[in-house]
Amino acid sequence: MSLELAALRRQFPIFANHPGGKPLHYLDNAAMAQVPRAVIDAMAAHDSTSRANVHRGLHPLAERADGAYDAARAKVARFLNAADPSEIVFTAGCTASINLVAQATGATLSPGDEVVVSRLEHHSNLIPWLMMAKARGCHLRYLPVTDDGRLDESRFGDVIGPRCRFVAVTHASNVTGAVSPVRKLAEAAHAVGAAILVDGAQAIAHGSVDVQKLGVDFYCFSGHKMFGPTGIGVLWGRRNLLALLTPPVTGGGMVGQVTDDDVTFLDLPYRFEAGTPPVTQAVGLAAALTWLGDIDRPAFSAEERRLTDRLLDGLSATAGVAIVGPKDLERRLPVVSFAVRRLHPHDICQILGERGVAVRGGMLCAQPLMTSLGLAAGVVRTSLALYNDDGDVDAFLIGLTEAIKVLT
Amino acid sequence: MTEQSLYQEQVKALAHAAHGAGRLSGPDGHAVQDNPLCGDRVDIDIKMASDGTIAALGHDIRGCLLCQASASGLAAAAPGLRPQQITEARQAIERMLHAVDATSDSLDGMPAFAAFTAFLPVHRSKSRHACILLPFLATEKALEMATGTNSTKEDATC
């Protein structure tokens, strides 16, 4: 392990605490990344010195909270290269962001309209559209995947047709790790007059995202997958499109005038933030972005790719293992899933877990994808973050061999 | 592996024996039980004897080794038992899994289910308890159908 990586790893208290009484080899980052001390401290400091509800109070504490919350929004806007902070809506998570758009967009669709998703989608970017389509009498169409778990680009034109009004796709698969050709998808959507939402839950932790360059209309992600706190997500949307949507969730903090018979909503983004927003979590998310900006991210990303290559090589050399997804480093995240012949993913995860190796197994909230790939029991997934090292990969590969031995 | 491994030889042997594997033709009761945590699914068929005891239990398991072993052990134990004894066995196994002092005493006096003491180490892995209980829950619902105490058994969730 390089000195730089060792120093970076020390910033994460979880690795020093040895939960479970043994060194932690955390390879479940696609489900939730760990948080650095800087994020923990920022949230504790906010709650210790500035805790108050926002955009309601006039006392000094409330003003400090307002400032922290607004600064967090501006930080996220800069991180995504959004045109304006008012395009940033704080939500409870990526799932909540997608639901917001699905419900608000659904109100504008008519029976017979088409919504396009892909076979790669996490349930979070599938079920909201499925429910909306059923409620509105719309058709849900699926972009197919290739045998190696990528979106089949040759079919974009077939599926995104003239009746398509909305496209919702993942930036990168939480199962196969494949990165989607987002700009091509945006072009295909816009060519038929449809809007496009991209689920950035997985991609956001592994590189910079410029929403304007991507050419999409909505982009969503969660804090907990990018070294931030749980309970906060982001919805970015083009201001002109957000302004057309009626808030699906209403309540305090988002209204202008309320009478016995009517209500007017605040301007963007507040109209989409009914109720008390996740203030402390927003401060934590901003701290995570600051922390990411302070490290040599390209160098650590290069290390992630090297370790991903080691994972792919090690899995390819293990008898009975079939990698589910791309087998090379081209347009993929450090998310590597696999199946082991005749063994159930949960049994493998259990044994690895007892050895301090944390991985995820099962359907990964992607049942239609698993069905299309013929994986009735799902997969085992390893997912790296920039604090992982060779010791983590070694522990995983050794543990996997032992697990297979125990179970066969 | 230590004695406390979840995957003791008795458990693996039970799974590999696959007692009762496969669906029964013309069952008196049938139920499906899903585990929302992992997506596992258990299909259970029951045939009843004229004296009110279980004649045969068949299963189709999409699940882990623990679930397969549990279904296999249950299929081996069930013939000749009354429906209430399945419920009592499930409750005894729940007590074993939840016991703070990790004891299988709750299965004393249930010789048909003696093999289930091999699941004792699973008590420390709460997320895996459902793997063992899923076949029992499906069987209880199939028995309700077989005995006419309930008629809606499909797609129940544990």
Brief digest:
The complex is a heterodimer of chains A (408) and B (158). Chain A is α/β, with parallel strands linked by helices and 408 residues long. Chain A is built from 15 helices and 15 strands.
SSE layout:
The complex is a heterodimer of chains A (408) and B (158).
Chain A (H helix, E strand, L loop, with lengths): L2 H8 L2 H5 L7 E2 L10 H13 L10 H21 L7 E4 L2 H13 L7 E5 L8 H10 L2 E5 L12 H4 L4 E7 L11 H10 L3 E5 L11 H4 L3 E5 L10 E5 L1 H4 L12 E4 L4 E3 L13 H16 L2 H20 L4 E4 L10 E6 L4 H10 L2 E2 L1 E3 L4 H6 L6 E5 L6 H18 L1
Parallel strand pairs in A: 1-13, 3-4, 3-5, 5-6, 6-7
Antiparallel strand pairs in A: 2-8, 7-8, 9-10, 11-12, 12-15, 14-15
Helix pairs in contact in A: 3-11, 4-11, 5-6, 13-15
Chain B lengths: L8 H9 L11 E7 L4 E9 L5 E9 L2 H13 L5 H16 L30 H19 L8 E2 L1
Parallel strand pairs in B: 1-4
Antiparallel strand pairs in B: 1-2, 2-3
The first-level CATH class name of the largest domain in chain A: Alpha Beta
Helix content of chain B: 25-40%
Number of helices of chain B: 4
What is the count of structural domains of chain B?
A: 1
Question: At the first level of CATH, what is the class of chain B?
Answer: Alpha Beta
Number of helices of chain A: 15
CATH topology annotation of chain B: Sufe protein. Chain: A
Gyration radius over CA of chain A = 22 Å
| Percentage of residues in DSSP E strands of chain A | 15-25%
The main sheet of chain A orders its strands as 2-8-7-6-5-3-4
Computed over alpha carbons, the radius of gyration of chain B is 15 Å
Q: Quick one: which chains have the greatest interface?
A: A-B, 17 and 17 residues
Mean pLDDT across residues of chain B: 89
- What is the number of strand segments of chain A? 15
| Number of self-contained structural domains of chain A | 2
Q: What fold name goes in the CATH topology slot of the largest domain in chain A?
A: Aspartate Aminotransferase, domain 2
